């Protein structure tokens, strides 16, 4: 079916989501010029994902810090965090299009873009899984955006049976930083199959890291060896 895909691309080329310029074969969602203008996160703690102050950007441009003061105040169960973008336009707009506009194709393509950017930067792992929603939230929303992004990242449907969200909690966006950590406490349950496995969890947005931390704790309790987090974007609290 490759010939059919090439046929469609020739007569109906995809256009850049920002400037509407036709995309080249290797370009995903945006053209090369618009890609350079995306809000890539410049400096963050690779241990917990905490963005560092703007004052340090010129001094530490394009570097990640292995440890920060935020790590001292919280116990983190994931071993390392990888973040691509700051939660700013157009990334924030696209995430909202997925959540509220149910743009499944956009979620899938963001997953492809995520893989394109990160394929040489991630460690080898045994399992790549999306951050799960509770069954009630999944029924209310009808889909899990992290699942769709992971689908695009893998190029195939993710196997999401290794980790479950067993508690239906309040939306984190409605809570204070302290409340967020309490809200998701013991919200996840992992399967025995994760024992001695290295695992990458993919999510759309990371803020305090509380939800991803609880998911990682559930995996570590079942004997997971290493747990890494990959977030499309990082928002500030």
Largest sheet: 4 strands, parallel
SS elements, strand count: 8
Strand content: 15-25%
Count of discrete structural domains: 2
Can you describe what's shown?
- The longest helix has 15 residues, at about 105-120.
- Helix 9 links the parallel strand 7 (about 200-205) and strand 8 (about 225-235).
- Mean pLDDT is about 85; it is low at about 5-10.
- The strands form three sheets. This protein has a four-stranded parallel β-sheet with strand order 3-8-7-4. A two-stranded parallel ribbon has the order 1-2.
- It has helices spanning about 1-10, 30-35, 70-75, 90-100, 105-120, 135-140, 145-155, 175-185, 210-220, and strands at about 45, 65, 80-85, 125-130, 165, 190, 200-205, 225-235.
- It has nine helices and eight strands.
- The protein has two domains: about 1-35, no CATH class; about 40-235, no CATH class.
């Amino acid at each position: 079916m490759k010939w059919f895909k090439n046929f469609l691309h020739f007569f109906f080329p995809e256009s850049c989501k920002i400037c509407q310029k036709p995309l080249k074969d290797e370009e995903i969602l945006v053209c090369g010029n618009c890609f350079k203008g995306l809000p890539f996160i410049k400096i963050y703690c690779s241990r917990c994902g905490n963005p560092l102050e703007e004052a340090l950007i010129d001094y530490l441009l394009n570097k990640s810090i292995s440890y920060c003061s935020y790590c001292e105040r919280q116990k983190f169960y994931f071993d390392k965090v990888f973040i691509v973008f700051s939660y700013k336009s157009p990334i924030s707009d696209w995430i909202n299009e997925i959540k509220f506009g149910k743009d499944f194709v956009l979620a899938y393509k963001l997953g492809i873009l995520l893989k394109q950017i990160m394929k040489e930067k991630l460690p080898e792992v045994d399992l790549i899984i999306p951050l799960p929603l509770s069954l009630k939230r999944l029924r209310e929303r009808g889909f899990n955006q992290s699942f769709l992004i992971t689908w695009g990242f893998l190029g195939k449907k993710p196997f999401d049976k290794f980790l479950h969200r067993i508690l239906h909690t309040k939306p984190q966006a409605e809570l204070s930083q302290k409340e967020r950590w309490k809200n998701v406490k013991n919200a996840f349950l992992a399967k025995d199959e994760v024992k001695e496995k290295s695992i990458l969890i993919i999510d759309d947005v990371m803020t305090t890291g509380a939800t991803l931390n609880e998911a990682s704790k559930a995996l570590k309790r079942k004997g997971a060896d290493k747990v890494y987090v990959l977030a499309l974007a990082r928002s500030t609290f």
